[in-house]
Known about the structure:
Elements: E1 31-41, E2 44-50, E3 58-62, E4 80-87, E5 95-99, E6 102-106, E7 111-119, E8 136-139, E9 143-146, E10 154-155, E11 163-170, E12 174-176, E13 181-186, E14 193-200, H1 203-207, E15 211-214, E16 218-223, E17 226-233, H2 241-259, E18 267-275, E19 286-290, E20 293-299, H3 304-319, H4 331-334, H5 347-364, H6 370-384, H7 393-398, H8 403-406, H9 415-430, H10 437-447, H11 459-466, H12 470-478, H13 487-492, E21 496-504, E22 509-510, E23 513-514, E24 516-519, E25 524-527, H14 535-540, E26 547-551, E27 554-555, H15 561-568, E28 576-583, E29 586-593, E30 598-606, H16 614-624
Parallel strand pairs: 1-11, 17-18, 18-20
Antiparallel strand pairs: 1-2, 2-7, 3-6, 3-10, 4-7, 5-6, 8-9, 9-15, 11-14, 12-15, 13-14, 16-17, 19-20, 21-30, 22-23, 24-25, 25-26, 26-27, 26-28, 28-29
Amino acid sequence: xxKLIYSIALISLAFGCKTPQSINTTTEDRTVVNLxxxxxxxxxxxxxxxxxxxxxxEVIFHIPKTVPGTYSIDNYGQFIENFxxxxxxxxxxxxxxxxxxxxxxxxxxxxxxxxxxxxxxFDIDGEKGVFSPTGSNIDATKNMLLNLxxxxxxxxxxxxxxxxxxxxxxxxxxGSTSLPLAESLKLDDLPNSKKDIYLASRYFDIxxxxxxxxxxxxxxxxxxxxxxLLSVYSPTSVHxxxxxxxxxxxxxxxQKRFLGKIDNTANYSILLYLANPSKLDAKxxxxxxxxxxxxxxxxxxxxxxxxxxSMTDVVSHEFFHILTPLNxxxxxxxxxxxxxxxxxxxLWMYEGVTEYFANLFQVNQGLIDSQEFYDRTASKIxxxxxxxxxxxxxxxxxxxxxDQYKGDYYNVYLKGALIGMSLDLRLRELSNGEMGILxxxxxxxxxxxxxxxxxxxQLIPTIVSVTYPEIQNFFDTYVTGTTPIPYxxxxxxxGVKLTTADSPTGFFLNGQVPYIDGxxxxxxxxxRKGITLNSFxxxxxxxxEDVIKEVNGKVxxxxxxxxxxxxxxxxxxxxxxxxxxxxxxEEITLNGKISLPTTKKSTIQELDLPATDPRVxxxxxxxxx
Length: 625
């Protein structure tokens, strides 16, 4: 999950493990990978990959172009250097780089191994556009955050074969992961070092299990039949696993109670990397889900209360991915193509329903009250208006990597969640409160499970078959169709009312949601695409995607965006305002008067109904069942 607007100077923060399997242990039929975390030079890790014997004349080795959960093209091959292939006598074989992520090796029947160097992403200015929780960190004596897709590749036709991963590491750095550890051995030729040996049944299980090596700062949470590892890296020791554990324990216990028997995950890992904003470090804050683990990146400067709330909002979303896509997913995910990806139609479920559950469980378990849940829902309704509401959600999902649709990705956490809510309310209405979307997901989990993917075009017919015939019309109209969802009509089924009115807002921030964002590759600030600008910006003539060059004679960029926000707080109604912007590669100047900004705000409130009203029964079943 990439649930984030790129963080700018910490003023905006949006929330943007595999159980052991039967693994073939014969050495002839597996790919053996060695990562050397001991002899790191120039901040680069040497990787050696031994694939076993080939019979073909040539083979192609790939580093992923994209990975599950990112929904973006990141080209991890751009961080690979000095790629070489060797025969059994140690001589180099001819290698041709066919694209940014692939290398063709000639005379493959004699191929013994390939070697290459991997650079990390965190200390590259702008991280080359890679979202931090999907990236990597190499700090030889302190921390190595290994999203393994950035380090380990695969040969054609070997993705479904077993892997053995051998990591040489300093004695004082320990690995936190959900990947099964077979053994840990001393290295006789490298004093004060060990090698950790991990086993995986296929390449997917390598990519699906990140590892963080650091000095131990861990805590375990054992609740409701699940063991959760919390591993924290705080570079200046501001935070610790001990201080964060109580919030994680409360959250996981509530989620497990909410899920009930629908979940069968026994182990889960949370790898929390806290970035130092004052240094060249990770700048993209949020998380990336894996089947039984998640990588979270947040700023170390967050106060503990804010950090705990962010962990609840972000990690709860990631944890719910153990339901989908872990237990309910299509062939496109189960047999993911890392270099020629084919995307599923069902982001509304993978991300949307997951985001809906991440909020619903909090009101269901008493972590927030109903009005807070309504306020969050209203905020999603308002924010979703910034996106084209007539694009079929299944079409957008299938084409999410294409230029025309990739800018709509954030809407999966808005309209995607609202699709989940509307479907939930429709099911409650049809069943007189007895069945909701969680019940539906349980049925789907029982039908499929983690090892049985579905055909992408068969999911909706299956949902209809296990619920009600009327649900077909819901999908035809609002999910595969072009009709916007009338949220007020669905909310009325539960006796709550949706209204809209003007509300005061900030010049550049609407609460915690920024009107501006930054491009880390060129340091520019711009007004975000896919958001309704406030009245002040609209009246001045600002348009989405305009690049900010100057405001009232001062040059602004990512580095001093905080100064811009602070300066705007002293602006007075009626004062002069001047902005120099770049629009379609042309510089324009906007002059006007400052007006107090407002925005349209949706509000949701419960209707005062007698207890015998059937809508009260649906509301109670919706929020508390």
